[in-house]
């Protein structure tokens, strides 16, 4: 049987100690790993929140497009757009809008779209859908709008041809008012049934 020298014995002991220690994590290593996992989780949550907001904005645009189609079908049948002013899906009116106007619009469009949409976030006041018809032109004009949630869609709201820079607007009324009047005069969503605030 081979005998080990003192130096060889010390080396073997050192290797065994190093091997046994390397099998476990130190406290510092565990803390670093936990920090990295926490950071990655935070990044994932932020990215997911952003993707959901983008998805809701896409749904809002789609909803307005569907409403626009229903409004045109209504116009083809009746020769005018539904006479509903300043309608919105706000939380304050339980999704029926001012004086029940959104539900009034829903009733008018029942044959073409039922139910008509509400905002993807549900009933609340920051993000909602709007409709306004212009009785001053025998309801031959209307506007639809919604607020975008994702920062990447700001340019859609600014460059849609309408009056409001913080809303996405479609329909004949918004660009007409923005083109014809300036300042508050281009405000098309009004309770007094005029095509533009301060204009006629």
Give an overview of the whole structure:
The chain crosses the membrane at residues 24-48. The relative contact order is 0.11. Helices cover 45% and strands 8% of the residues. A hairpin with an 8-residue loop joins strand 2 and strand 3. The chain is built from 5 helices and 4 strands; from the N terminus they run H-H-E-H-E-E-H-E-H. It is of the alpha+beta class and 200 residues long. The longest helix has 52 residues, at 27-78. Strands 1-2-3-4 form a 4-stranded antiparallel beta sheet.
Sum this structure up briefly.
With 200 residues, the protein is of the alpha+beta class. Helix content is 45%, strand content 8%.
Topology:
Blueprint: H1 6-22, H2 27-78, E1 87-88, H3 101-108, E2 129-133, E3 142-146, H4 154-158, E4 168-170, H5 173-180
Antiparallel strand pairs: 1-2, 2-3, 3-4
Q: Give the helices and strands as they follow along the chain.
A: HHEHEEHEH
Shape: elongated
Give the mean pLDDT: 82
Spatially, the strands of the biggest sheet line up as 1-2-3-4
- Give the total of beta strands: 4
Low-confidence regions? none
Quick one: biggest sheet?
A: 4 strands, antiparallel
Structural class: alpha+beta
Kindly report how far apart the N and C termini lie.
112 Å
Helix fraction by DSSP (H/I, runs of at least 4): 40-55%
In terms of DSSP E residues, the strand content is 5-15%
Q: Provide a count of the helices.
A: 5
Q: What does the radius of gyration come to?
A: 31 Å
Membrane topology: Single-pass membrane protein
Keywords: Membrane, Methylation, Transmembrane, Transmembrane helix
Organism: Candidatus Doudnabacteria bacterium RIFCSPHIGHO2_01_FULL_43_23
Subcellular location: Membrane
